[in-house]
Structures are given as C-alpha cells and as structure tokens.
Amino acid sequence: MISRGFRRKRADTGGTAVPPGQYVTTDFPVLSAGPTPRTRIADWSFALEDADGKEMFRWGWFELLALPATEVTVDIHCVTKWSKLGTRWKGVTFDDLVLAAGRPPPAPFVMAFCDGGYTTNLAVADLEAGKAMVAYEYDGHALAPEHGGPARLLVPHLYFWKSAKWVRGLRFMQADAPGFWEGLGYHGRGDPWKEERYAGD
Length: 201
Description:
- The protein is mainly beta.
- It contains 2 helices and 11 strands.
- It has a single domain, classed as Alpha-Beta Complex (Sulfite Oxidase, Chain A, domain 2), CATH 3.90.420.10.
C-alpha cells in the first residue's frame, strides 16, 4: 500500500524556496521500510559492480575513509512531504569512488543495494559531477544507524528515498530497472521540483 504522505501545516521557510507540496521541519524524521540493520564496521564494505554483477572494486570501512572526503550543506526533501534545510554531510563522492576504482562508469544506470535488502535505481547522470556521495557523517558526527549509518547514499536533488540507507554498493545496469519503492509505484527518478512522487506524475 502506498501512502501519499502526511498532511501537515506548512512551516515558514524564511524566504527559502522549497519544492511544491513540501513543508519545512527542524526535526529529522526516521522512515524505513523495515528494521534498522546494525552492521559492525569490521564487517562493512562497499562495492562497485559491473552490469554482469562482477565486482569492479571493493572498499573496507577504513579504505573508504582514506579516500578524499567532501563536505556539503544541502536541503533534503522526503516524498512524505517534509523538507529539512541546511543539512551538513561528509563522505566520498561518486566521482571519487569511480576515480579510485580506475574505471569509468560502464553503464548509464545503477541499482543501489543495501543491508536489509533495500534497493533503489538511479541514472549515473544523477550521481556524477558532484551530485551524490556515500555519506558517513551527519552534522559533524558519525551517521547514526537510524539515519542509515554507518554509511548511506546521499542524492539531495532527488526525493530522499533515493538516498539509500545502509548502502553497500552500486551495481551498474545497461537499462533502467525499478528498485524497492519504484516497484511498488514510486516514480522512477523522483525529482522533487517536478513532484515526481509516483509513477505517472
């Protein structure tokens, strides 16, 4: 069953533009499709896989932390209609992961896969050129498990379900295919400025 979002009174945005249909919150709501995984750092890794499912490169936790780090301050927008402004993140950009792997993206789409079985599909064009990162810190602290820690995907220009929690890798795909929520009727891309919430929007 698909929820069309909570109904809340809109908060004053202080003159900051937010996507249509959104309200601003100072909270950081916790929304998940299942229980919160708690992966030990010693067991954690992140992989890039080619379109045949073969591993291109894999990083352990401390290998990820050794890669160039990027800090960003961005607004985030949930399909359930809340927006949180000026959130601070630290992580490794998709561009730096690809550079470290030593191979250009072999296909135009990816499927993000995560602990707990969650998946979401994205176009490489929505990840490259500084648009996305694997984030491991939020607001100056290690990312809490309920918010996707130890690491989550951060793709702030799309609805937040695309910023997959507990991410463990990206599998490249020659053709786009739906992930978890997309298979249940959510939009394939999820641009909040176009209100791409559900299939057909």
